[in-house]
TrEMBL record:
Keyword Hydrolase: yes
Stretches with biased composition (Gly residues): 152-168
Residues spanning the signal sequence: 1-28
Domain Glycosyl hydrolase-like, first and last residues per copy: 174-484
Organism for this UniProt entry: Cohnella zeiphila
Protein name: Family 10 glycosylhydrolase
Length: 536
């Protein structure tokens, strides 16, 4: 699969250069250079750019001579076949798709012939091979870096020694999950199913079947979207995402149904809670009488367009714990899962009064006090879960960057504008070291070529955090970004390369995709690649 990545990038580079030269918009041959692991590559035919497709085309000789790949061209079928380390890529001239190990993958540009040379897209080839591709517009240099190579800044990092995208013996992660969002009816149920239990049940069954068909064996279902519930509760109202009206009985127990159907298929069910997000908007209009914002307005902080339960108030924290424990004690769930909604980032949070009232003098600044509030919540919830049902796991999915090295030398080599420790007051390191949680699932929603927060750098950092602690590491992946303009998301192979990196790391025990609908819409032809990778 990494072969495909390298070849893709190589093809991209060649196509771009050729088009520009042929169409009057091409750059001169000496305008663009290709560098592999610090070594400038030569070519008997100049690469060319395809501006509209944002692709670069290069001659296949670059691949065969510099990457050790076997390259064959069939004049009869006008097809190029590239083989390396068990990976087989075929591209037919003029076709908008390629095949990688038999799976069809969409292309931005097809193989072409220029000056009697076969040209292929650089980025597609590079990403398939697992190479890092970096374009410097100022210097007009394309830098390729192999896995495990010494490379330049922006290299992929450690991985399979042959650069094929996986080492011998690497296996897909044990847990292969998908988040199912119910807030705003994003994944389930549909708004068309309001008030129709049979339709909601049918939609959920199909969702499970479709996910299982691509290798997913666990679902993380949002059962508390906004201070409400997808189950009958003594403490919080029925969610409006079941009927369109908060507090209205849907006529069945959705959570009981979902747990049963999930287990029937041999899949794992994790109950996903948004702990402190209370409501959208700034009023109580549309909220049920027993919603926390209506019953305890003194617990609520308006932050931007969202109302939050204040984590600094002990009684408010306990209210959330009690609501979660209703599910732990009442249902056969496999785990309790929290996302990163603790304190909101990027907006003011008016908690001065709580700080004055509940800070016992132990904290000289509000930041440390906020982190302690979240720590107490995580500790107390973990203790409650493990005391009630030791078999139920407890995990949290924080924002993917704990701290940058610029703020803390033990942080990651990233330049993230937001970090979970400083902006969301989530002290994940303490949760892990204290053993309050069973797993951590950071949302590493960036590619292997996103310089500010590279996937491999973060996956390795989190792997070191859990090493020797007994806390499992699951990684959150972002198929919803495929096809966007952000660096690295122009090929579905990006996801597979990330999964292979996880498998080769020796630390990652699970992969989770956000979200179910984004996965099942088959972005850029991802699903056949996942099925091949997972062996289904």
């Amino acid at each position: 699969m990494r072969l495909r990545k390298w070849i893709s990038s190589l093809w991209l580079f060649s196509l771009l250069l050729s088009t520009l030269a042929a169409g009057g918009h091409a750059f001169a041959a000496n305008d663009i250079s290709i560098v592999l692991d610090g070594r400038t590559l030569g070519a008997d035919t100049s690469p060319y750019l395809v501006p509209k497709a944002n692709l670069t085309m290069v001659p296949i000789r670059v691949i065969s001579e510099n990457l050790g790949a076997s390259v064959d061209w069939s004049q009869q079928t006008r097809t190029v076949t590239i083989r390396r380390s068990g990976v087989v890529i075929t591209m037919e001239q003029g076709q908008s798709s390629a095949r990688v190990d038999g799976a069809v993958v969409k292309l931005g540009a097809s193989a072409s012939v220029r000056n009697s040379r076969i040209m292929v897209p650089l980025r597609f080839v590079s990403e398939t091979l697992g190479l890092q591709v970096d374009w410097n517009a100022k210097t007009r240099i394309i830098a390729l870096t192999t896995l495990g190579g010494t490379g330049t800044e922006g290299s992929v990092g450690t991985g399979g020694s042959d650069g094929s995208g996986g080492s011998s013996g690497s296996r897909p992660a044990e847990l292969r999950g998908a988040w199912i969002s119910t807030v705003y009816n994003l994944d389930w149920p549909s708004t068309a199913s309001y008030g129709d239990p049979a339709k909601q049940e049918a939609e959920y069954d199909k969702l499970l079947d479709d996910l299982q068909a691509i290798g997913i064996n666990a679902v993380f279902v949002q059962v508390r979207p906004m201070g409400d519930a997808l189950y009958p509760s003594r403490l919080v109202p029925w969610s409006k995402y079941l009927t369109g009206t908060q507090g209205k009985d849907p006529g069945y127990d959705p959570l009981a149904f979902m747990v049963e159907e999930t287990h029937k298929r041999g899949m794992r069910f994790e109950a996903w809670f948004n702990p402190f997000r209370a409501a959208a908007g700034s009023t109580t209009d549309g909220l049920a009488a027993n919603h926390v914002a209506a019953e305890h307005p003194d617990w609520i902080v308006q932050a931007g367009a969202t109302q939050y339960i204040n984590p600094g108030i002990p009684a408010a924290r306990q209210h959330v714990i009690d609501a979660i424990m209703e599910v732990v004690n009442g249902y056969d769930i496999d785990g309790v899962h929290l996302d990163d909604y603790f304190y909101p980032s990027g907006t003011a949070f008016a908690d001065d009064a709580a700080y004055l009232q509940y800070n016992d003098g132990s904290f000289a600044n509000k930041g440390d006090w906020r982190r302690d509030n979240v720590n107490r919540f995580v500790r107390d919830l973990g203790q409650a879960i493990h005391a009630a049902k030791p078999s139920v796991s407890f995990g949290i999915s924080p924002f993917g960057v704990w701290r940058n090295q610029s703020a803390d030398p033990t942080g990651s080599a990233t330049k993230a504008s937001v970090t979970s420790y400083d902006d969301m007051y989530a002290d994940t390191r303490t949760w892990i070291r204290q053993g309050w949680i069973d797993y951590i699932a950071p949302q590493i929603y960036w590619s292997l070529s996103f310089s500010a927060a590279r996937f491999d750098i973060l996956a390795e950092w989190w792997g070191n955090e859990v090493k020797g602690t007994g806390v499992k590491l699951y990684v959150g992946h972002a198929p919803y970004k495929l096809g966007t303009t952000e660096a690295g998301w122009q090929s579905p192979q990006e996801i597979v390369n990330q999964l292979k990196y996880d498998a080769d790391s020796g630390q990652v025990q699970g992969d989770i995709f956000f979200s179910a609908k984004d996965l099942l819409r088959d972005p850029l032809g991802l699903l056949p690649l996942l099925q091949t990778y997972y062996g289904v």
